[in-house]
């Protein structure tokens, strides 16, 4: 009896410890990317100081242009919409241990697919057209990145290089189609597909002035988080990402998981392209290759591939990129300045991973609980 | 027998090494406390102790990997500073590790030559090859020189590690459990050779070992460490193994293996006419007929690299069969997750952290790997965090897994506790077929005893157990029936009761 009791107390104590250490880990997971962001910003300040520009002015301008007014918020959130979906294309495969950096390709082809649907059957009513465009965009994006996953699983092709190179192929394919087969003869100096019928255009979220892509993006992030953290499929995917050998010996279908999750990530990116066409540009053209896929990489890493954390990270980066124009005009800095900042933050993020489990001040949390 | 002098700077004779008051603290934890050990020139000294007793810390301080908190070291009576491993090498100190330090993509010959300090910018391979061939003829065993090391089996790699030290002309050698992957005959040969080198004054040797047989047969002296302290030792001739064991484990009580119950079972697993490629792709693994009955442990002995790991891969569905079939309970078995669940098949692969865990995931999550998607006879879509926490808390308690908390990444646990956690996961519930490979490799005394008890208990409860192990003592202790695997085939079978060890060893070594 007493032994049973002792055992029960012990397990209760362990369970109490579970909560406190889990908390400590969650804090660490949040602190590391934030510290990396700060470190990247400080390094960038030094870079600015060398150019003779006051760093403080720079950050104030970013704030003003990205988040200062209702207008700037609208602009920022409109940019955030594709970034949310593009980041998922990196974050979902990353949980299986795959580094996919070619989401840009799925965005571009998703947009072309939407444009193609509009060109081929413009007679459909609005809701059916939108649904069909979304399905086409997601399907093409899913096949594109799912193909990268399949190459990885079946033939051992490096997914990072393959996805990057396939993004170039995708952009070339888009140019080929938009300037040839799908070209609207009326588009003279900017080859595009035929303009979408007015009823097919996706409108704004009432009261926000931002198109519905933002809502879909946030929903996608929440669903991805639920899928990864709260379902058995997500758990199986995390086992595959944690150790493929262990997953295999547990009999988990590693191939199906790898291909499925890469395809899902690609489908989100394809959806981003579709929203760019249906809500922003009104037709598919070279503007689709705007670099959202590459910014998505930084966002996913900043969010540590956590679906919920992608939302603030995407808004932050969207605001930064939205401020690019104002910075160029006011501070006489080149267009690439924001890319320099993004690069510095990215390096700091990669560096911060090496500090995992080494934050000494967090260990007191665990000890206090004991 | 002399080792060729390739580097003129190290001494040409065995050297004496002594540590004085060696202390090593990591933060508030004292790993090594005031350890003074004298190892005279030409002696064969053994360092005994459980895992975590401080043996590795001590030798790492001696080799310059750690800077001791306090304490000195002398070589041949002179105080020396060893700030880094290079300094230790210059003094003639060398070490053979448990983990390999060879470059897998290079051949043995290339590994040996590049490890030298005086490699010329342009290597005259013809001359080097001739020198190496001459060197190998003086050695009591050889390894293939022209095969990439990655393709050698663990046992061969360990031999090459030892050859490398001799090739580099080291005069004080630290051996960290060098025989754990060798057959008894090979181990005897290896240690006999080291012994020969020590008695003729060429070499001084400090060996970390768990095997008393090796200590009594080859060593002059032992030093015993327990919880970082030097608790005793002396001449091997003056000590009994019981005395050494008592010093090593202190007051602790050992778990005795459960009594063997007579179970007359039906065959659970049958492998017939199975044929598959081996890891090199050059040879085949052929298992003509292998049956494991419920309530019996079939021990599969063999030197590493004779197809045991491939067999484990075949049985766990990771290596496709070219011919033949595996049947469990009379039905074809492909090791899918649903089949494993249906027939209660469980796997304990070797090196559990590497093969059965996701190192960065928590202890609780790792314990949940087998049950997360199925409960109450139904597949589950939602992950049940509470079920995970409860299962993990119960199993961690039952199997006495030492962990800071259930949220700790499993990689932070010691080897024994990782294996306990994996065992708790795989032995939970009804087990009909248990496939095990090297379950106790690198674990300490009490963990080994406990894990073997668990395996025996599973057998007594009616599980059919296939135990693939390179540790013959383990096979002899646990098995009901012993098979020997050699060159991809099962070449010998004997009941464990009254088994002739010489006969088993002969078949392991390839004499049939």
TrEMBL record, chain A:
It comes from the Bacteria. CDD domains: TM_PBP1_transp_TpRbsC_like. It is found in: Cell membrane. The chain crosses the membrane at residues 30-51, 71-94, 106-124, 130-149, 161-178, 210-228, 257-280, 292-320, 332-351. It is a multi-pass membrane protein. GO terms for molecular function: transmembrane transporter activity. One of its GO terms (cellular component) is plasma membrane. Keywords: Cell membrane, Membrane, Transmembrane, Transmembrane helix. The keyword Transmembrane applies. Its main location: membrane. This is ABC transporter permease. The lineage of its organism: Bacteria, Pseudomonadati, Pseudomonadota, Alphaproteobacteria, Hyphomicrobiales.
From TrEMBL, chain B:
It holds the Pfam family ABC_tran. InterPro entries: AAA+_ATPase (IPR003593), ABC_carbohydrate_import_ATPase (IPR050107), ABC_transporter-like_ATP-bd (IPR003439), ABC_transporter-like_CS (IPR017871), P-loop_NTPase (IPR027417). Keywords: ATP-binding, Nucleotide-binding. The keyword Heme does not apply. PANTHER family: CARBOHYDRATE TRANSPORT ATP-BINDING PROTEIN MG119-RELATED, GUANOSINE IMPORT ATP-BINDING PROTEIN NUPO. This is ABC transporter ATP-binding protein. It comes from Xaviernesmea rhizosphaerae. Belongs to the ABC transporter superfamily. Residues 17-252, 268-512 form the ABC transporter domain. GO terms for molecular function: ATP binding; ATP hydrolysis activity.
